[in-house]
Amino acid sequence: MSSQHYPVHGAGLGLRRAMLSSLADQTAQPADFWEVAPENWINVGGRYGKTFRELTEKFPFICHGLSLSIGGPAPLDEAFLQRLKRFLREYRIRYYSEHLSYCSDDGHLYDLLPVPFTEEAVRYVTDRIQRVQDILEQRIAIENVSYYAAPGKAMEEIDFLTAVLQEADCDLLLDVNNIYVNSVNHRYDAEIFLQQLPAARIRYIHVAGHYREAEDLIVDTHGADVIDPVWQLLDKTYQHFGVIPTLLERDFNLPPLADLLQEVAVIRALQSKWQDQTGEHIQHG
Description:
Elements (H helix, E strand, L loop, with lengths): L10 E4 L5 H5 L8 E4 L9 H13 L2 E4 L13 H13 L5 E4 L2 E3 L3 E6 L5 H18 L4 E3 L13 H12 L2 E5 H10 L4 H6 L6 E7 L2 E4 L2 E3 L8 H14 L4 E4 L7 H22 L7
Helix pairs in contact: 4-5, 8-9
């Protein structure tokens, strides 16, 4: 896939406010791109707002939404979408993604709940994604999510996901950790799932850590180091699709920035490995 296909390049990191003081001490560019939840930064002023603007002027940024509730029963929050549109343009955010899930009804539920794997849900979610793209005047990506139950399931997860991508004509944020988590919890082959994804729709990748509750139950926490099987699945992803920009997510139990950058370095090493084997050039920044 041509590098022009992707909104960013290289290895990225999710930005948290706790990192800001450590970032100020960095002399080298710590990550090739950064990702933020827009809900955490829209209308933020003062010291944090000033620092955020300075960072967006220095580094490529993308946004990963938390509250759109693309599969939820309540109407889309179009007032929020207008605020989001202004935010994306003001800070020259390169891309926007959301979860293929829902998190609200009459109020926010503070969790990402699974959309039923049904034809009706495909049509419902498709209409809402198209409306979001119309309002934002840009394509968006949806992320394959982790889930722990599949109420009303009439389709396989892979068939539901690919149907939404095709019918909504949107892009995919590929979360490799979520594939691994779901493959354990729902007993399917992660590599077979991966190979069925539409390569042309993948815009970037997430990797993260999780918590193993039991031998057959993993909870997607983003609160631990990435484990070897997830790194191996990322390696398989590059083998199958080529080198794709990849971001490390860490939301809880934040270690020192230097520790997170060691994991970013693992991403870079895997990308370089496949760059060397394919002769593909990786553009950083």
